[in-house]
Every structure is written in structure tokens, then in C-alpha cells.
Design brief:
The chain contains six helices and five strands, in the order αβαβαβαβαβα. It is α/β, with parallel strands linked by helices and about 130 residues long. The chain has a single domain, classed as Rhodanese-like domain (Oxidized Rhodanese, domain 1, 3-Layer(aba) Sandwich), CATH 3.40.250.10. The chain has a five-stranded parallel beta sheet.
Length: about 130
């Protein structure tokens, strides 16, 4: 009986800790698949931003996107100059790593942000439109 009580308490404590740890703070932006991202940027009010380098952008990018390099030390100031906080922003990079960083920065500045989860490489693999 005591073993059953201890086991029950252990299971309850484990479940409580699991639930408590799963409630991580949100990043403040939403990750989208290539298909979801494509549907999103069809809206002319969405500001699409390529956060890769100028060289990467010149090699191919999503049509209609702005290029603001997240690795540039002036990224935050450039974003403020180019982007409208009243309109949503869709960001992407090569694989999704830099754009997640950009999305966090922009979210903290008050932008509503969407991120292309697996980046431009996934976009190309799905045969989506590319501008050069």
C-alpha cells in the first residue's frame, strides 16, 4: 500500500514537472512551412524580408522581398527605416536559422512576424518562384 502511494505521488510529481516545464515562453513569431509562407506573402500588405547577405540575395530570392542582412550591425535600425510596424513581416534566410534570430529581434520591437521555417533552400526544393 505504501509503495502504491509513493508510486502515485511520483507519477503526479513527474506529471506536474513535465507540465510546468512545457510552458516555455513563446518567441513572439510564427514558423510557417513553404506552402503556408507562399500563401501568406500573396497578401500585398505583408512585408517580405530576406535577411541573408547581399551576395546571397543577388544569387536568387523570393520575388518582391526586401533585403536587410540580419548579420549587419545596423539590422535593427535598417528594419525601422524600411519596415512599417503596422503591417506584418515575413522573414526568411537560407535555412531558417538567421531568420529565427531576425524574427526574435523584430518581434521584440513590436512587429508581427512570420518565419519561413526551413528557409530558402526548402522554398527552392518545393519549386516555388525565385527572382534573380
Amino acid at each position: 500500500m505504501i509503495k502504491t502511494l509513493y508510486f502515485t505521488l511520483f507519477v503526479c510529481a513527474f506529471a506536474f514537472l513535465l507540465f510546468a516545464c512545457s510552458d516555455k515562453p513563446k518567441d513572439g513569431f510564427k514558423n510557417l512551412s513553404s506552402d503556408e509562407f507562399e500563401r501568406l506573402i500573396e497578401d500585398e500588405n505583408i512585408q517580405c524580408v530576406d535577411v541573408r547577405t547581399v551576395a546571397e540575395y543577388s544569387d536568387g530570392h523570393i520575388p518582391g522581398s526586401y533585403n536587410i542582412n540580419v548579420l549587419d550591425e545596423n539590422f535593427s535600425a535598417s528594419a525601422d527605416e524600411v519596415l512599417d510596424k503596422e503591417e506584418p513581416v515575413a522573414v526568411y534566410c537560407k535555412s531558417g536559422r538567421r531568420s529565427r534570430n531576425a524574427a526574435r529581434i523584430l518581434s521584440k520591437k513590436g512587429f508581427k512576424v512570420y518565419n519561413l521555417d526551413k528557409g530558402f533552400e526548402d522554398w527552392k526544393e518545393h519549386g516555388k518562384d525565385i527572382a534573380r
